[in-house]
Structure formats: structure tokens, C-alpha cells
């Protein structure tokens, strides 16, 4: 049963008279709330105006928003530049893996070609297969977790005009090779280990490293100590220094974990301590060399005595001791006339100022602030340490994070011990960490 509330009947004439006697007529108006509701729309009453009350503006606002969105979308479609199809520093571009050569269970070489042909790669000097920059790298993207990591491409395998890679894999057409070691932990390592020929990878770069030419100046010597795949920047540096200057000398000191990184099977004839020595051995042409060792042997044949490549193998108990490093630093420049500058106050040659430097300098790196020495370019010999973090820390001290970037930090480890023992090394040699 519905319940109704009955209101008493009121005489209409009496109500009108009562309203007329009220000096405000307030009792005849509907009683409004003292505070308006949140979504209330108000109209100003007018007893004289013949125009209807103003309508809400919500429809006008919706139309304005719609036109604004359409205009913004049109602008983004037509005004935003298209992504560059070839290797660049801003966007990732696709490359195809054409080959994968295993060196050991954890290390391998990948050859990549750009999916968009690139007959004039920006990292090569025009008309040659020589690097434009002494040190540079690219980023690989791990698409599953959206992370990236820098890898250094191997230098071209041949001299100018003698490209050993043909067709689509030609270095002059943008083909790149990478020597990679997949560590047991890490998302990037797991991703790289799974890659096979015909897979697509995304690259971004080049990212420019230290300008070694400006730092060398008139000096002639580079000693490059590398652990594992850290050898690749040393091969880059050697190619640039030895191709660019006829009197430059480079000593590559390469520490590997397994003999398989150098040679898969023992040679039929053992000579000069090449196999099984407890100390550093000079690399030689031999049977069954790995692709990396074979390229090093080819470089030695090309540059002769100007290039030395010594190897130690961790699994065989050999390593680079302080005495080996001291000998390499002192022997390589023993016949040179000193032309280096102490470099005080120069961002390129002052070791103290170099502590604040990042290895990614870009094209706009620092300029030399040294005074000329005997009419030659100021410079210093370079002692460069490259490899895993623990390797670099042992031989040259930790890198330091400052302001969101990784800097060189002070010289430590074995290098600092050698400088303390022989102060002349600190004066003539600049230490760099990669």
C-alpha cells in the first residue's frame, strides 16, 4: 500500500492577498539553498528583458577542445621529421645479422648489415674504409626490457681499396662486426647469446670517445692494456694511429680467459713460446687462429715492428704483472726525444683535470691549452686500460660517477704504483680508462 502525505487545501484568493501584503513577497518564492550545489547553473533574473536567459557554454567548450586536438594531430603528422633510416645518434635503426662465429662457449663475432643500404657511412672517411674517429661505439637495444648497452665495432679487416667483405657485407656499405662476450648474468647478455643469422637488431650511434690524436700531439707511443673484448677499442686506436702517422708505435697487451679466444687447436709446431708459456707471448701467424687473432696477425704483417701484440691466458696461469707493464712503457719510447708537455691546466694533457672527463666526448671535445714545445704539437704518450670493471680497477683504479655520468677518477691500481716508482712515467704518459 502506497503512503501519501496529504496537504491542507488553501484558498487561492487568500494566498494572493497575503502575498500582496508582504513587503518583500519572500514567502511566495521557492526557498533556495543558502549554498549552491557544485554543478548548479545560474541565470540572472530580469523582469524587463525580452531575451531568453544565456545558455550554458559546455557545447562551445567541447567544440574548441575537438578543434584543438585535430589541429595538434595534424601538426604532429606533417611537421614532425621522419626518423632517419640509417645509423644516427638519435634513433635506433634496424640491422640484420648475416653471420655469427663462435670463439668460445661465451664469446662470438656478429656481422651486421643495415636494412637500409648506407653507401656513405658517417663513421668512415669519404672514399676509404678508415674510421673518421679514433674511438667510437654504438648502442644495442634489448627490446624485451628496453635497455641498451655500448659495443665497439671491430675496425675494417683490410687496407684502403682492399675490402675483404663483399657485396651487402662490404664495410663500405655499412657492414659492422662486433666481438662480444656474453656474461652469465644480465638481460643484455642473455639477449645477445640468443641472436642468430637473419635476426634483426636495433643500433644507435656512433658515440664518439676520446680524441687520441689531439692527446698524442707530437708524441708517438700508445700502450693499450685490454681484458677480453676490451681489445676492440685498442684495435681501433692502433689502426688510426698507425695509418695516420709513419713514426707511431703501438703495443697491444691482451689478456684473455681461454686459449679458444685466440686459437681453437694447438699448432702442429710450437715455437718461440707461442703455446703454453707462463708469461706474455707475442702473437704469431699460426694454424687455426680465431678471427680476432687472425686479424691481429694481419695487422702485424702490415705494420711490421711498429705494432706489437702480446697475449696472456688466465686459464693457463699467465697474466700481466707490473714488471711487464713497466717494460712495455719504458721500451716502446726509449729512442724517442722527449717532446711531451706536463700539460698543467690543459683538459687534454693534465692528468688531474682528466679525472673529471667522460670517455664519451663527442665531436665537441676539449681543445689543447698547452704552450707549443720546441715548435711541435704538445702531447703525451698514452697508456690506455680497457676491459671489465674489475680489470680496469686492478690496473688503473675505479672510474667515478659524478653528476649522472661516469668519469675517469684518479689513477690507482698498478698504474699508480708504477708512477710512484718511476715519476718520469707520470710526466710522459697520460692514463686513460675505457
TrEMBL record:
<keyword id="KW-0812">Transmembrane</keyword>
<feature type="binding site">
    <location>
        <position position="188"/>
    </location>
    <ligand>
        <name>FAD</name>
    </ligand>
</feature>
<feature type="transmembrane region" description="Helical">
    <location>
        <begin position="65"/>
        <end position="82"/>
    </location>
</feature>
<feature type="binding site">
    <location>
        <position position="189"/>
    </location>
    <ligand>
        <name>FAD</name>
    </ligand>
</feature>
<keyword id="KW-1133">Transmembrane helix</keyword>
<comment type="similarity">
    <text>Belongs to the flavoprotein pyridine nucleotide cytochrome reductase family.</text>
</comment>
<protein>
    <recommendedName>
        <fullName>FAD-binding FR-type domain-containing protein</fullName>
    </recommendedName>
</protein>
<dbReference type="InterPro" id="IPR017938">
    <property type="entry name" value="Riboflavin_synthase-like_b-brl"/>
</dbReference>
<keyword id="KW-0560">Oxidoreductase</keyword>
<dbReference type="InterPro" id="IPR008333">
    <property type="entry name" value="Cbr1-like_FAD-bd_dom"/>
</dbReference>
<keyword id="KW-0472">Membrane</keyword>
<dbReference type="GO" id="GO:0016020">
    <property type="term" value="C:membrane"/>
</dbReference>
<dbReference type="Pfam" id="PF00970">
    <property type="entry name" value="FAD_binding_6"/>
</dbReference>
<dbReference type="InterPro" id="IPR039261">
    <property type="entry name" value="FNR_nucleotide-bd"/>
</dbReference>
<feature type="compositionally biased region" description="Low complexity">
    <location>
        <begin position="44"/>
        <end position="58"/>
    </location>
</feature>
<feature type="domain" description="FAD-binding FR-type">
    <location>
        <begin position="90"/>
        <end position="213"/>
    </location>
</feature>
<dbReference type="InterPro" id="IPR017927">
    <property type="entry name" value="FAD-bd_FR_type"/>
</dbReference>
<feature type="region of interest" description="Disordered">
    <location>
        <begin position="39"/>
        <end position="60"/>
    </location>
</feature>
<dbReference type="GO" id="GO:0016491">
    <property type="term" value="F:oxidoreductase activity"/>
</dbReference>
<keyword id="KW-0285">Flavoprotein</keyword>
<keyword id="KW-0274">FAD</keyword>
<dbReference type="InterPro" id="IPR001834">
    <property type="entry name" value="CBR-like"/>
</dbReference>
<dbReference type="GO" id="GO:0005739">
    <property type="term" value="C:mitochondrion"/>
</dbReference>
